[in-house]
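Dear support,

We are seeing what looks like truncated structure output for some complexes. This example has two components. We would appreciate it if you could run it in full and send us the complete token output so we can diff it against ours.
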Amino acid sequence: MDAVGFSSLGIVAITSIFMGAVITIQTVYNLVNPLVPLWAVGVVTRDSIIIEFSPTMISLVLAGKVGSSIASEIGTMRVTEQIDALEIMGINSSGYLVLPKLFAAVLIFPFIVIISMFLGIAGGWVAGDLSGVISSAEFIRGAQDSFVPFNVTFAMIKTVTFGFLIVTISAYQGFYTTGGALEVGQSSTKAVVFSSIMILVFDYILTQLILA
Amino acid sequence: MIELKNISKSFGSKAILENISAGFEKGKTNLVIGGSGSGKTVLMKCMVGLLEVNSGEVFFDGRNFSSLSFKERKPFRQEIGMVFQGGALFDSLNVERNVMFPLSMFTDMTDAEKRDRANDCLKRVNLINVTKLFPSELSGGMKKRVAIARAISPTPKYLFFDEPNSGLDPQTAILIDNLIKEITEEYQTTTVINTHDMNSVLEIGDKIIFLHEGKKWWEGSNREITASNNNELKNFIFASKILRELMEKN
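Here is the complete output from our reference environment:
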């Protein structure tokens, strides 16, 4: 669980805080209509982070960190015959190596994304206040206004799907590595590229299916 | 005893093994020799079920192994130990845990019993005070010995070694050869060794089969090999000009 999730908390925290900060400042910058109250920035920041940025952006970050790690670990085991050694002992190597990672990802990724949501909104709040573009009171008022709990459920559905995609695609790339160190690196790169593409494709599909 | 009957294996249109039949006896060190790309490793992987044969059969003491499914092979697995070319030790486990690993898979031993058995096996391969080290901290010879300890821990009936001497200095290679010979005689295992090391061939080759271009070209013992008239075999064992001249003088 540590390798699949908790070790990524640092990069997730940094990404989330700056993501929230940028969303807040850019929303204020683009909010030129005097009929829209400034506290709406809080609403936009909260919903953008919950619905899209935390589940998708953080999953892309995790595809880079966790996906490449899974592909290179399993790929190295393949080229150094460690997987053959497991199979000689009658162990279903794919189940033995992949299932624990899959369970860990599906369990841990939602927690990481929830932490990312809090940090993202907090980042937006602090950045808005420090830069003076929106007061703390106005941001908090917006962040508390017309909250839709289903948005969090939707984000969790996306996160679990993305976690499944990251682990299965990366494990597949690692498992079918042939050759040596060069090919392990190539498998790792393919794992990140294919996982990222599939995250974006499924982001669209899930949004279309659930929200449209 | 392990018997191979008409084993053939190809990858796509490329034939790697063609119609190989052989018998490997219990309590003896059986060597499969041949140049790189001759099909030795593929033959060994077919024997242990890591690769499926295209045609032919593998018998372990009269039991047809090649006709069994993955699940049906499970009870056989406990009887098979294999030492891979690079050792194939699990990087994330220390030496003791590596040796205990097959015991966890095949037996109901308690942790203490497994630890005792692992330490016995490590002593048998002359390794002491390394139990807490990780594979990355071991030399090539030590890795091979840990791999042998792991292979013998569940007391297998059949032992397979893929190039056990590759990458080792001559003295360590002889130590490993002697260890394999001792274990084979002590545990009365049917041992099959892939090698192209001539020292091994001459020292421990109770029975030798020579593969060339995926076919069996010669079969005999270490006493017969130097007297063979098989040209391909002679080219293989006397690849060194100095050795050829020495043999001609004798």
